[in-house]
Protein backbone atom coordinates (compact mmCIF):
# COMPACT_ATOMS: atom_id res chain seq x y z
CA UNK A 1 0.00 0.00 0.00
CA UNK A 2 1.38 3.41 -0.93
CA UNK A 3 2.20 5.99 1.69
CA UNK A 4 -0.51 8.29 0.24
CA UNK A 5 -3.23 5.63 0.63
CA UNK A 6 -2.14 4.93 4.19
CA UNK A 7 -2.38 8.58 5.10
CA UNK A 8 -5.82 8.85 3.51
CA UNK A 9 -7.10 5.82 5.43
CA UNK A 10 -5.86 7.28 8.72
CA UNK A 11 -7.61 10.58 7.99
CA UNK A 12 -10.90 8.86 7.10
CA UNK A 13 -10.79 6.77 10.31
CA UNK A 14 -10.08 9.86 12.40
CA UNK A 15 -13.02 11.71 10.86
CA UNK A 16 -15.40 8.80 11.47
CA UNK A 17 -14.26 8.45 15.09
CA UNK A 18 -14.67 12.17 15.66
CA UNK A 19 -18.18 12.12 14.22
CA UNK A 20 -19.25 9.20 16.40
CA UNK A 21 -17.81 10.87 19.48
CA UNK A 22 -19.59 14.11 18.67
CA UNK A 23 -22.87 12.26 18.13
CA UNK A 24 -22.48 10.42 21.46
CA UNK A 25 -21.81 13.70 23.24
CA UNK A 26 -24.88 15.28 21.69
CA UNK A 27 -27.17 12.46 22.74
CA UNK A 28 -25.88 12.16 26.30
CA UNK A 29 -28.33 13.19 29.05
CA UNK A 30 -27.14 16.43 30.66
CA UNK A 31 -25.76 15.90 34.17
CA UNK A 32 -28.38 16.59 36.82
CA UNK A 33 -27.69 19.40 39.22
CA UNK A 34 -27.29 18.22 42.81
CA UNK A 35 -30.45 18.65 44.86
CA UNK A 36 -29.84 21.00 47.75
CA UNK A 37 -32.21 20.39 50.65
CA UNK A 38 -33.93 23.56 51.81
CA UNK A 39 -33.34 24.36 55.46
CA UNK A 40 -36.60 24.24 57.38
CA UNK A 41 -37.81 27.63 58.51
CA UNK A 42 -37.39 26.83 62.21
CA UNK A 43 -33.67 26.26 61.64
CA UNK A 44 -33.02 29.42 59.67
CA UNK A 45 -31.14 32.20 61.45
CA UNK A 46 -32.96 35.40 62.36
CA UNK A 47 -32.60 38.68 60.53
CA UNK A 48 -29.98 40.00 62.88
CA UNK A 49 -30.35 43.40 64.49
CA UNK A 50 -26.97 44.13 66.10
CA UNK A 51 -28.61 46.46 68.60
CA UNK A 52 -30.59 43.59 70.13
CA UNK A 53 -29.48 40.83 72.54
CA UNK A 54 -28.97 37.27 71.31
CA UNK A 55 -31.12 34.40 72.62
CA UNK A 56 -30.45 30.70 72.02
CA UNK A 57 -33.20 28.08 72.33
CA UNK A 58 -32.00 24.50 72.79
CA UNK A 59 -34.38 21.57 72.73
CA UNK A 60 -36.05 18.73 70.86
CA UNK A 61 -39.06 18.70 68.53
CA UNK A 62 -41.23 20.43 71.13
CA UNK A 63 -38.93 23.43 70.93
CA UNK A 64 -38.84 23.19 67.14
CA UNK A 65 -42.63 23.43 67.27
CA UNK A 66 -42.63 26.66 69.27
CA UNK A 67 -39.49 28.21 67.74
CA UNK A 68 -41.14 30.51 65.21
CA UNK A 69 -43.86 31.52 67.66
CA UNK A 70 -41.27 32.47 70.27
CA UNK A 71 -39.28 34.43 67.67
CA UNK A 72 -42.44 36.25 66.61
CA UNK A 73 -43.28 37.12 70.22
CA UNK A 74 -39.75 38.49 70.75
CA UNK A 75 -39.60 40.47 67.50
CA UNK A 76 -37.88 43.80 68.19
CA UNK A 77 -36.73 42.48 71.57
CA UNK A 78 -34.08 39.89 70.73
CA UNK A 79 -32.44 37.92 67.94
CA UNK A 80 -33.72 34.38 68.54
CA UNK A 81 -31.64 31.42 67.35
CA UNK A 82 -31.64 27.63 67.70
CA UNK A 83 -29.35 24.81 66.54
CA UNK A 84 -30.32 23.57 63.08
CA UNK A 85 -31.22 20.16 64.44
CA UNK A 86 -33.35 18.24 66.93
CA UNK A 87 -31.14 18.46 70.02
CA UNK A 88 -32.36 15.08 71.26
CA UNK A 89 -31.17 13.58 74.56
CA UNK A 90 -28.54 14.83 77.01
CA UNK A 91 -26.00 12.48 75.43
CA UNK A 92 -26.23 14.48 72.21
CA UNK A 93 -26.06 17.68 74.19
CA UNK A 94 -22.75 16.65 75.73
CA UNK A 95 -21.15 16.00 72.34
CA UNK A 96 -22.71 18.92 70.47
CA UNK A 97 -22.92 21.80 72.92
CA UNK A 98 -19.66 23.45 71.83
CA UNK A 99 -20.86 23.53 68.22
CA UNK A 100 -24.30 24.83 69.19
CA UNK A 101 -22.84 27.64 71.29
CA UNK A 102 -20.29 28.62 68.64
CA UNK A 103 -18.43 31.86 69.24
CA UNK A 104 -21.45 34.12 69.61
CA UNK A 105 -21.91 36.07 72.83
CA UNK A 106 -25.26 34.86 74.18
CA UNK A 107 -27.39 36.98 76.47
CA UNK A 108 -30.00 34.32 77.30
CA UNK A 109 -29.92 30.55 76.78
CA UNK A 110 -33.21 28.69 77.23
CA UNK A 111 -32.73 24.92 77.19
CA UNK A 112 -34.39 21.55 77.72
CA UNK A 113 -33.59 17.85 77.52
CA UNK A 114 -35.92 15.08 78.65
CA UNK A 115 -38.39 13.52 76.25
CA UNK A 116 -35.61 11.81 74.29
CA UNK A 117 -33.84 10.70 77.46
CA UNK A 118 -36.90 9.04 78.96
CA UNK A 119 -38.13 7.39 75.76
CA UNK A 120 -37.70 3.61 75.53
CA UNK A 121 -35.41 2.00 72.98
CA UNK A 122 -34.83 -1.63 72.05
CA UNK A 123 -31.62 -3.67 72.46
CA UNK A 124 -30.49 -2.75 68.93
CA UNK A 125 -31.39 0.92 69.24
CA UNK A 126 -34.98 0.46 68.07
CA UNK A 127 -36.77 3.77 68.53
CA UNK A 128 -39.86 4.13 70.74
CA UNK A 129 -39.82 0.54 71.93
CA UNK A 130 -42.57 -0.93 74.07
CA UNK A 131 -41.78 0.06 77.70
CA UNK A 132 -43.28 -3.25 78.83
CA UNK A 133 -40.85 -5.32 76.79
CA UNK A 134 -38.20 -7.08 78.84
CA UNK A 135 -35.41 -5.96 76.50
CA UNK A 136 -36.33 -2.26 76.33
CA UNK A 137 -35.01 0.56 78.52
CA UNK A 138 -34.98 4.37 78.66
CA UNK A 139 -32.52 5.82 76.18
CA UNK A 140 -30.81 7.59 79.09
CA UNK A 141 -31.36 6.30 82.61
CA UNK A 142 -32.58 8.83 85.14
CA UNK A 143 -29.24 8.55 86.97
CA UNK A 144 -27.22 9.27 83.82
CA UNK A 145 -29.67 12.01 82.92
CA UNK A 146 -28.86 13.80 86.17
CA UNK A 147 -25.11 13.46 85.57
CA UNK A 148 -25.34 14.67 81.97
CA UNK A 149 -27.68 17.56 82.77
CA UNK A 150 -25.37 18.75 85.54
CA UNK A 151 -22.44 18.95 83.12
CA UNK A 152 -24.52 20.71 80.46
CA UNK A 153 -25.93 23.23 82.94
CA UNK A 154 -22.47 24.08 84.22
CA UNK A 155 -21.15 24.59 80.70
CA UNK A 156 -24.06 26.85 79.79
CA UNK A 157 -23.68 28.87 82.97
CA UNK A 158 -19.97 29.37 82.22
CA UNK A 159 -20.90 31.32 79.06
CA UNK A 160 -22.00 34.27 81.16
CA UNK A 161 -25.48 34.20 79.67
CA UNK A 162 -28.63 34.17 81.75
CA UNK A 163 -29.53 30.48 81.63
CA UNK A 164 -33.11 29.20 81.82
CA UNK A 165 -33.94 25.53 82.34
CA UNK A 166 -37.22 24.67 80.63
CA UNK A 167 -39.17 21.83 82.24
CA UNK A 168 -40.02 18.81 80.10
CA UNK A 169 -43.61 18.69 78.88
CA UNK A 170 -45.99 15.85 79.88
CA UNK A 171 -46.27 12.41 78.30
CA UNK A 172 -49.97 11.73 77.59
CA UNK A 173 -51.70 8.38 77.88
CA UNK A 174 -51.13 6.16 74.87
CA UNK A 175 -47.97 7.90 73.66
CA UNK A 176 -45.75 5.33 71.96
CA UNK A 177 -42.44 4.43 73.60
CA UNK A 178 -42.92 6.56 76.70
CA UNK A 179 -44.59 6.21 80.09
CA UNK A 180 -47.00 8.86 81.43
CA UNK A 181 -45.54 10.31 84.62
CA UNK A 182 -41.90 9.97 83.53
CA UNK A 183 -41.71 13.63 82.58
CA UNK A 184 -42.53 14.51 86.18
CA UNK A 185 -39.90 12.06 87.47
CA UNK A 186 -37.20 13.46 85.21
CA UNK A 187 -38.28 17.04 86.00
CA UNK A 188 -37.96 16.36 89.72
CA UNK A 189 -34.40 15.13 89.21
CA UNK A 190 -33.64 18.09 86.94
CA UNK A 191 -34.91 20.51 89.60
CA UNK A 192 -32.39 19.11 92.09
CA UNK A 193 -29.57 19.37 89.56
CA UNK A 194 -30.46 22.95 88.60
CA UNK A 195 -30.65 23.95 92.26
CA UNK A 196 -27.28 22.33 92.88
CA UNK A 197 -25.61 24.16 90.00
CA UNK A 198 -27.27 27.41 91.11
CA UNK A 199 -27.85 30.66 89.30
CA UNK A 200 -30.18 29.15 86.70
CA UNK A 201 -33.80 30.15 86.28
CA UNK A 202 -36.67 27.74 85.53
CA UNK A 203 -39.42 27.97 82.95
CA UNK A 204 -42.35 26.02 84.51
CA UNK A 205 -43.43 24.60 81.17
CA UNK A 206 -44.69 21.32 82.61
CA UNK A 207 -47.51 22.96 84.57
CA UNK A 208 -48.32 25.37 81.75
CA UNK A 209 -48.64 22.49 79.29
CA UNK A 210 -50.61 20.39 81.76
CA UNK A 211 -53.14 23.19 82.16
CA UNK A 212 -53.68 23.17 78.40
CA UNK A 213 -53.49 19.44 77.71
CA UNK A 214 -56.39 19.78 75.28
CA UNK A 215 -53.86 21.42 72.93
CA UNK A 216 -51.63 18.34 72.94
CA UNK A 217 -52.20 15.77 70.22
CA UNK A 218 -53.96 12.57 71.22
CA UNK A 219 -51.56 9.86 72.41
CA UNK A 220 -48.67 12.02 71.21
CA UNK A 221 -46.11 14.17 73.04
CA UNK A 222 -46.37 16.84 70.33
CA UNK A 223 -48.75 19.80 70.16
CA UNK A 224 -51.24 21.28 67.77
CA UNK A 225 -50.33 24.56 66.07
CA UNK A 226 -52.36 26.36 68.73
CA UNK A 227 -50.57 24.45 71.46
CA UNK A 228 -47.12 25.28 70.06
CA UNK A 229 -48.12 28.94 69.83
CA UNK A 230 -49.11 28.89 73.49
CA UNK A 231 -45.78 27.30 74.47
CA UNK A 232 -43.96 29.86 72.34
CA UNK A 233 -45.65 32.65 74.27
CA UNK A 234 -44.56 31.03 77.52
CA UNK A 235 -40.96 30.86 76.31
CA UNK A 236 -41.07 34.48 75.17
CA UNK A 237 -42.53 35.57 78.51
CA UNK A 238 -39.73 33.84 80.43
CA UNK A 239 -36.99 35.12 78.11
CA UNK A 240 -38.35 38.67 78.16
CA UNK A 241 -38.32 38.70 81.97
CA UNK A 242 -34.73 37.42 81.97
CA UNK A 243 -33.64 40.14 79.54
CA UNK A 244 -35.32 42.82 81.61
CA UNK A 245 -33.57 41.59 84.77
CA UNK A 246 -30.28 41.44 82.91
CA UNK A 247 -30.68 45.06 81.79
CA UNK A 248 -31.12 46.39 85.33
Automatic annotation (TrEMBL):
Q: From which residue to which does the signal peptide run?
A: 1-22
- Keyword annotations: Signal
Q: Mind telling me what this protein is named? A: SGNH hydrolase-type esterase domain-containing protein
Which species does this protein come from? Rubripirellula lacrimiformis
**Domain of life of the native organism:** Bacteria
Q: Does the keyword Signal apply?
A: yes
Q: InterPro entries annotated for this entry?
A: SGNH_hydro, SGNH_hydro_sf
Q: Which residues form the SGNH hydrolase-type esterase domain?
A: 58-229
Pfam families named in the record: Lipase_GDSL_2
Record-level Gene Ontology MF annotations: hydrolase activity, acting on ester bonds
Amino acid sequence: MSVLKSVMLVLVFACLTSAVTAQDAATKTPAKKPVVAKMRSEYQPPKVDDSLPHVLLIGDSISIGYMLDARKELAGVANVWRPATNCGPTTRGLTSLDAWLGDRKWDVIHFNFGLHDLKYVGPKGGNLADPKAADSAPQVSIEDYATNLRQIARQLKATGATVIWRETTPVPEGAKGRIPGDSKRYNDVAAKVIAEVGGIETDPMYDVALQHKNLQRKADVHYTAEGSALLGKQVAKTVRAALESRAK
